[in-house]
Amino acid sequence: MFIPKPPFLSYRCRTLLTTFIGWLTLSGQSLASDVEHHHFSSPTLGYDYPYSVYLPDNYDTQATAPYPVIYMLHGSFGTDRDWVSRGNLQQVADRLIRAGHIPPAVFIMPGSRSWWVDGHNEPARSAFFNDLMPHVEATYHVGQERHLRGVAGLSAGGYGALNFALERPDLFAAVAALSPASYVPLPPRNSSAWRHPAFINDQGQFDRELWETLNYTAHLEEYRLRVIPRGTDEEGDLPPVPLYISAGRSDVYDAEFHARLLRQAMERIQPNEVRLDLYPGGHTWQVWRASLPAALNFLFQYVGQPNNVAAAEKSAEQAMPVEESPGEVSS
């Protein structure tokens, strides 16, 4: 008996069919959160300051308790939309909130032309603290206390997030630096820092002195004095800012080496409040997407916790990614 063969589908048709089926599946599980893109006039910059904002499902401006807020900094030559369009932040945050691993929170993703410093091209650091944060706290129902704020970033954004936390430990409960471009003593020659307008002086040269002045190593001593008790019966002015670090094992900028240096420096100050995760891969969005769940889980061990000392006692295992292949936790 003749049995007709099913019609042959070309590779292109199969691909289109698979994509369509995937779209139908996702449409039935549409994201309940919202991402908006805004800008406001920045007196410090003298022009509009762009930012994107993630608002959780059922965001309520009249809620009794304000929402925790995490500031997410993009990398060199990036934009405020990178964390959503390339980093899957909306999907990851939705999933972690639905699973109960993190609380409903607001994520602010600002845009900057600089490396989050007051550099040669714009006063990005001053604009962040003097303009962006007040604007966010006046516009959204977010906490205005230290324990309700966190800051994170990737590459140059990790450099900026780390500096912000060390300079202003009074403002942030925790910090996450993904492949931070916090190179010591200088950036590798293939780093974009050597050609970025933030570090190019009037002579068109890379400003080494500015780099050394702004890098995290310049902030460590003052930070240490603020968070370490001065005597057996005294307390530091502030609790330390717990630090999460991640890096790719084959990073072309040797981020793993510099991440280990950073961990060593910070462990001298806060030995129980530094975590380093290493992932297969380079200086890429693949690594940053893989490490984002662990970074957010780590941040929310402290953000939203009024007693950060008690939160610090939680085990590192609680910060492992959800539905992701975990990176190697460095010992």
Low-confidence segments, given as residue ranges, are 1-9, 15-29, 309-326
Q: Could you say what the CATH architecture is? A: 3-Layer(aba) Sandwich
N-end to C-end Cα span: 67 Å
Element order: H for helix, E for strand: HEEEHHEHEHEHHEHEHHE
| Name of the CATH class | Alpha Beta
Number of domains: 1
Largest sheet: 9 strands, mixed
| SS-based class | alpha/beta
Tell me the name of the CATH homologous superfamily. Alpha/Beta hydrolase fold, catalytic domain
How is this structure best described in words?
This protein is of the alpha/beta class and about 325 residues long. The chain has a single domain, classed as Rossmann fold (3-Layer(aba) Sandwich), CATH 3.40.50. It is built from ten helices and nine strands. It has a nine-stranded mixed beta sheet with strand order 1-2-4-3-5-6-7-8-9, with helices on both faces. Strand 7, helix 8 and strand 8 (about 275-280) form a beta-alpha-beta unit. Helix 3 (about 90-100) packs parallel to helix 9. Residues about 1-10, about 15-30 and about 310-325 have low confidence and may be disordered.
